[in-house]
Amino acid sequence: MSRKRYSFIILILGSLATISPFSIDMYLPGFPTIAKDLGTTIDKVQLSLTSYLIGICLGQVIYGPLLDRYGRKKPLYVGLVLYVLASIGCALTSSVDSLITMRFLQAMGGCVGLVASQALVSDIFPSNKRAEVFSMITLVIAVSPMIAPTVGGYVTVGFSWHWLFIILAGIVAVMIAGIYFFLPAGQLPDESVSLKPKSVLGSYYTVVSQPQFLIYTLAGGLATAAPFAYISGSADVFMNLYKVTEQQYGWIFGLLAFAMIGSTQLNHFLLKKFKSQQIIQFTLIYQSIVGILLIVGVYNNWYSLLGLIGMMFVFLTGQGLTGPNTSALSLAPFRKHTGSASALMGSWRMGAGAIISAIVSFLHNNTAMPMVGMMAFCSIGGLIILYLGNTTVLQRAARGEVEDQVSVLL
C-alpha cells in the first residue's frame, strides 16, 4: 500500500469516527441559546447529550453483528442515511423533548461510523500496525473538537442553532459519497454469521470471555469516559461561572482538544520504545494524580480561568495515549468476531460516557466540582480495573488456568 493511499484511507476512517464527536462538540456553545429558545434550562438541554450517548451505546451493539454478517458498507449506508434524516429533525424541532428524541435517533445512525472504522482497521492493517493506525485516527478525531465548537459558536451567533444540524447533515451526506467511491470494502459478508438472538448473544459471550478484551475494554472504556464529564459540564462551567462568550468557549474547547493531538503524536513515537500496556498504565497513574489535584484545587478555589484550563490541558493529554492503545489491545485477539468486539468496546465506552455525563448533570451545583470529580473518578476507576484484571489473570495463569494472555498482560 502506497503512503498516499495509506494516508487517504486513514483520513476516511478518521472522518467516520469523527461523526459522533463532531455531533457532540459542535452544538455545545449553543446550549444557553437552545435553552432560551426552547423555554427550558441548560441542565435539561444537557439531557440531549445524554440521549445521544445512550443512542451510541445501543446502536453499536446492533451494528456489530450486522457488520459481520453483511460486510462493512451496507450497514454504513443505512446508518448514515438515518443520521442525515435525524439531523434534519433536530433542526426543525420546537421542544426540548423532541430534541432529546431526535438526538437519540441521530446517534443510532451515526454510531455506525465508530464501529465500522474500528473493524476496518482490523480488516485492512496487520496487527503490529493497528496501535499506530488507531493513533492516526485519534489524531483526526482530536482535530474535530478544535474545529467543531468554534464553528458552532460562530454559527449560533451569526445564524441560529438550527443551522448546526443542517451543517452536520450536509457533512455526512458528502461523506456517504466518499465512502461509496473510495473506502475499501474490508471484510466481505459472512453468511455463517447468524442474526438470531441466541447466536448473536453467543458471539458476544465469546468476545467477553476473552480476558484481554475484557480487561482493556473495561479499563479503557471508563478512562476514556473522562472527556464526557468535561464535555457535559464545560459549557456551564466556562460560560456561566467564568462568563466567557460562545466564541471564547469555542477557542477554549479547541485549545484543550490540542492536548489530545499532541499526545496522539507522542504515542506514535512511544510505541517504538514501549509496549501499549506500559503506556496505558503510566498514563492512568498520572491522570489519577492530576484528577485529585483538580478536585482539591476546585474545592479550595485555587484556580482562576487560566489555572483551570491549564490543569485540564495536562489531564486531557492522557486521552491521546489511553484510547488508541486500549483499542488495539482489546481487538487484537479477534479475527472472526471483530465487528462484534468493536461494537461491544464502543458501546461500553459510550455507555460509560452517557452515565458519566448524566451524573455530571444530576450533580449540577453551580461549581466545577461535578465535572472535575467525575474526570478523576474515570481515571482512578480505570487504573483499578486494569490492576485487578491483570492480577486476576496472572493468578489464574499461576494455577495453569490460562496461558495465551499472560505475555500480553505482563
Automatic annotation (TrEMBL):
It is a multi-pass membrane protein. PROSITE patterns: MFS. GO terms for molecular function: sodium:proton antiporter activity; xenobiotic transmembrane transporter activity. One of its GO terms (cellular component) is plasma membrane. Residues 9-393 form the Major facilitator superfamily (MFS) profile domain. Belongs to the major facilitator superfamily. Bcr/CmlA family. Its main location: membrane. The chain crosses the membrane at residues 45-64, 76-94, 100-121, 133-155, 161-183, 213-231, 251-270, 282-299, 369-389. Keywords: Cell membrane, Membrane, Transmembrane, Transmembrane helix, Transport. It comes from the Bacteria. It comes from Dyadobacter luteus. GO terms for biological process: xenobiotic detoxification by transmembrane export across the plasma membrane. This is Bcr/CflA family drug resistance efflux transporter. Gene3D superfamilies: Multidrug resistance protein D. It is found in: Cell membrane. The keyword Translocase does not apply.
